[in-house]
Every structure is written in structure tokens, then in C-alpha cells.
Here is the input.
Amino acid sequence: MQYHIIIAMTIWFTAYVDSRKIRGISLAYRRFYKEKTSFLCIDGSKLIPFDQVNDDYCDCPDGSDEPGTAACSNGRFYCTNLGFRPHYIPSSRVNDGICDCCDASDEYNSQTHCPSTCRKLGQRQRAEVENQIRSVNEGLHLKQQLIKDGINMWHEKQNQLNDLRRVSENLHRKLEEEKKAKLEAEAHKDDVMGYQKLDGYGSKRQKFEDDAPQNIFQQLDSNKDGWVAAVEVQAQVELFQDDRHQLTETEAVDLLGGSNQVDFASFQETLFSRMKSNDKIKIKDRPSKLDNDPLVQAAIRAAEKANADLKKVEDAYETVKMEIRDLEEMLSTDYGSNKEFIYLQNQCFEMTVYEYTYMFCPFNQVTQKGSTGTETIVLGKWHSWAGPIGNKYSKMKFDKGQPCWQGPARSATVTLMCGTETVLKSVKEPSKCQYFMEFQTPAACQPLQPKRNVHNEL
Ligand code: MAN
Here is the structure.
């Protein structure tokens, strides 16, 4: 019996002494807890006897006298976690029966047995870090190539632009020449086609026709009986008043000076003389001399060719101007400090999330298409890089998308992450019509900075 009492006393005493040990503090803070007769609360607010440290009663307002017990509600316990990551837990979790520190240090006086898992966790973490480092290094290697290709492409486009500018200048010159050639060809055609003063009854701007009276008489005398009859006049002569007008028999007789038919002599005095003074009286299907005149035909062909040539040059000039505009726009875009993102222009990346298929086209736009509807909704047009200062190229902003129902215009923010593959990783719409994407590319890889705040107790 006495033996049992001694053992119980020993266990209690060991636990008591254990709890009095300065637990739950980091190396950096150890200097505050050097065994002395008094303890100054770390915030400097109170001086207490040293044996009140970790006596399970909270004396200091900042909880610094009880780092190893749960007595202070604002106290914090430092898990050293040798082999893994040190961290603080609220001191209320000390000896609460739940293992918080991987080195089991928070449950030093509890019924719960906490295995130490720091080594395993540390190994796992180190493996993860190594993988990450490997991936970043591989990404950086790929990025070097992207930079090389990007700079080459940039120069290529710049040269293309210079070439196109030269082509455009030449085309502009050519355009002026072709315009002049066209005007000349048109003028020549007009000359040849009878804009000069014509004999007979043709007005200055009327097409030249073979208008000798005997020719007209012959044409009208369709039965070749030597007479032009009223029916022949009706069949071949038209009157242009408000509209094309078919002659009545009376009108035809009237044009023949009141006779039903006339010979050549009377024809000249009647119908022919009326035709000369009245250009509204016209003969149907009068063959034009122009149709057969090789000079006129050549002039028409030359004018047509001049027109077609001008059109060709105009089209080429417009195309070149458009290409120049596109190139200028491309070359004014910021493709990263070393042009490493240039390879993304003209590419699109797709991802389906639930019922929507999203399309991310860097430097262009972000769209969304529902699986049921056919409509493609623009979520945002390329606006700018939007990463924080010092890491500008880590985010892309797309705005002025299609208006949201009862809301603002849609917009999208794309976060760029380092990786060896170029791939769209995630799409979310955390608040209505505001889309967030994660995109992985080697171009986003940055050399790893040595981590600060990694505790030397690791
Ligand atoms: C569509 C999609 C959704 C969006 C709603 C808002 O259905 O663009 O992403 O939340 O419109 O009405």
C-alpha cells in the first residue's frame, strides 16, 4: 500500500515538475524565461514571481506567463515540431486530449497518447518541396526557350511590319498612278464613243449611230417594198415621253405626214425630219456603230482594264493596311518583360465546368458557352496585366464582357501559375458574373526565393 502511494506521488510530482518546465516557447523567446526569481510579462505590463510561470493561473494580460498551460485565453503555445514545421497553437489546446503538435508536445500531461509524426510529415513535405523545385526548374528551363522564341518572333513581326510599310508606300504610289490611268482611259473612251460633236441629229452626249436617212429608211422598210408603212413605223418606232410608249396607228400615220405609207423622199420630209428635231422619237434595236468599231471596243476594254487594275491595287492596299494595323496592335502588346508570353497570342485554352465550356484566349478574350444553348457569351475582353507591384505578370484582367442580367458587365481575372505544361487549370464564378481562372504556363515560372521565416529548429 505504502509502495503504491510512493509511486502515485512520484508520477504526480514528475507531471507537476514537467508542467513547470518552460514549454511552448520558441528559441527566440527563451531568453524571457531564464530561471530567475521574477518574471516580467513580455508586454512589460507586470512583474510576477517566477514560480507563477506555468502555475496554471493566468497573471499576465498578454498570457505570456502561461505558455505551457491552458490558463490564459489569449496565450499561445509553440510547437517546436522538430523535423517538421514549428507553429503556434492557442494555449487552450494544451492538454485538451487532442494532438495538435506533431511532436506531441502539447499533450505532455494528458491521457491521450500522441505519436510523434514530425519526421514523417517532414519527409513528405521535403519530397513535395523537392518536386516543386524540380518542376520550377524544369519550368524555368522551358521559359528560357520561350524567351528565345519570343524575342525571335518579336523581331520577325517587327521586320514584317517594316516590309509591309514599304509595300504599303509602294501600293499608295501605285494607287495614285492607277487612279490617273483610270481617269485617262475613261476620258479616252468617252472621246472615242462620241463625246465629240456628231453630225446629224445626235446630241452631244448621245451615242454615235449610223444615222444616214437611207440607212434608217432601209431598216424601217422591213418588207423591202420601197415604202415605209404606218404598221412598219408602229413596229419599229418608239416614243419616249414619260415612259416608253408604243405608237398607235393614228400616231404612226401622223408621223408619216398623214399618209399610210411614204417613199424615201416623203420619208425624209416627214418622219426623218421629225426625228432630227425630236430626240424622243427613237428607232428600236438600231444597231450601234460603236458595237462594231474596233477603236471604240479597244477603248472600252482599256477603260475596263484600268478599272479592274485600280480595284486590284485598292484591294491590295486595304489588305496591307489591315495587316499593318494588326501587326502594330500586336507589337504594342506587353508580352512580359522578356516576351515570354508571346507564344500565347492566337492560342485558346478550353475547360468545361458543369454545364459551361470556358475558352481563354490570352490577349484577346474569355468566353463561356452553355452546353444547351448555342450562344457564346463574352466574359471579358483583354484589358491588361493586373498582378501586384513586382509581380505584374501573374494576373491578367479581361473586362467589358456581356452585361450580366440585372448586374454589371461580366469580367474575368486569370491567375498565372508556374508549371511545365500550358493548361487552363480551374474556372470559378465566386460572385455572379465575375470569373476567376487559374492558368498554368512555364512563362509564369520565377526563380525560387530562399524561404525566410523557416525556423532553424527544423
Ligand atoms: C449565365 C452565365 C452564368 C451567369 C448568369 C447570370 O447563365 O453567364 O455564369 O451567372 O448568366 O445571369
